[in-house]
Amino acid sequence: MKYLQLTFYSFTGIKKIIDLGDFSYAEWIVYDNDVPKYHINLYTELKSDMMINSILNKKENTIEGILKNINTQYGTKLSLTTRPLIMLLKKEELVELDLGTLPEQWVKNIIQ
To answer: In which domain of life is the source organism classified (predicted)?
Structure first.
């Protein structure tokens, strides 16, 4: 799938992020060690995404809390990223990425 990659200057140096746009409700790009790895979309029929949707709808946890629990349990470095308030855009480009969903086993184990 093609994603919009933004390259920009920030106070901490040159950064690259995947931008889903302003109208992407209930979708997140999850980074593992600052590399885009997973795409969570709550409007799909994929089991992992449906379990996350259930957790969020019951207000048991937030998406950040879910990632924090997975990091604690599995020793990963999953995170979300947002655009900084102040940035100088360097480049926008469409990149082809094969981002999967979070592994189903990870999500199952944080529910229990």
So the answer is: Bacteria
Beta strands 27-32 and 35-41, pairing class: antiparallel
- pLDDT tens figures, 29-84: 999 998 999 999 999 999 999 999 999 999 989 999 999 999 999 999 999 987 77
The whole-angstrom separation of Cα 84 and Cα 19 is: 12
Residue type, 18: I
Cα-Cα-Cα-Cα dihedral sign, residues 99, 40, 74, 110: negative
Whole-model pTM?
0.88
78-92 pLDDT, tens digit per residue, is 999 877 788 888 999
For residue 56, what are the domain limits?
2-111
Residue 62's SS3 state is coil
Q: In the chain, how long is the greatest CA-to-CA distance?
A: 44
Q: How many CB atoms lie within 10 A of CB 92?
A: 11
